[in-house]
Amino acid sequence: MKRIITFTLIALLLVSCDFIADRYKNVPDPEVYFPDGQELKMATAIYEDKPRAIRSLIEEGIDLNHISKGGMTYLYYAMLNKNYEVMELLLKHGADPNIHSTFYTNPSSHKIGYGDDNGACLAYCGRRAYDIKYMKLLVKYGANVNDTTYISPLALSIDDELQGKEKVAFLVQHGANINLRVAGATVISSEANMYNWDKVLILLDLGADPMAGDDPKFNVAAFVQQYYDEGFDPNSENGKMAQEVKRRLEQRGVKFPYLPKKPAASTPSEGQPKE
């Protein structure tokens, strides 16, 4: 049951991200999230790619970390426009990459005071639509590689079929905890939960602990065992990768069939993510 719930949660997060990405194939007009005043002037300059106008507003003292009436920062909007140069300009002049935009995907929701997206630039740039250069730029200016407010940069980066391994490696090299737990689960256990053995192998290559996590029934070994119990084609690509994952676990001393150990006696901190 926990696997089903977790799978559903992950799927909903990724579907939500896909919805946002589809929405921004054509970037929203500035007034959608920056309805009036100075914020509309700045957003329009970003949208129309006018660095001179942006610099002029900066010289006038505009707050680059202002969250608009629509819940979005200028940096986030520049990122949606995929304007690397403007992002760099904003960052050089003090834009904070760790401020979370709390914008809405449905304008009617905003009318009743509801914001449904807690956007962090670095996590969003983990998506396939973004070259790794955006991620490198944000990290250069202090983006938190272990931000888990919405979904971690690692979790989105590993799903990039083009540069996923490179992005995850970059994040780890710059301090990301590859075994970071969100709701008690690690990225590698979540990928194993979905039988994404190719991504499990990538994470193993980068040093992820397949047995990490708060629940002994929710780690890579448990899902390998489940995959074997359900039956699979050993000659399929995914089947071959599952066998390789199992082999690597056995090299680490994991015994199959895998029988999860019972959780230790409860403590006052039980259920809290471990640092």
From TrEMBL:
Keywords: ANK repeat. This is Ankyrin repeat domain-containing protein. It comes from the Bacteria. InterPro entries: Ankyrin_rpt, Ankyrin_rpt-contain_sf, E3_Ligase-Neurotoxin. ANK repeats lie at residues 70-102. Residues 266-275 have a biased composition (Polar residues). Residues 252-275 are annotated as: Disordered. It comes from Alloprevotella tannerae. SUPFAM superfamilies: Ankyrin repeat (SSF48403).
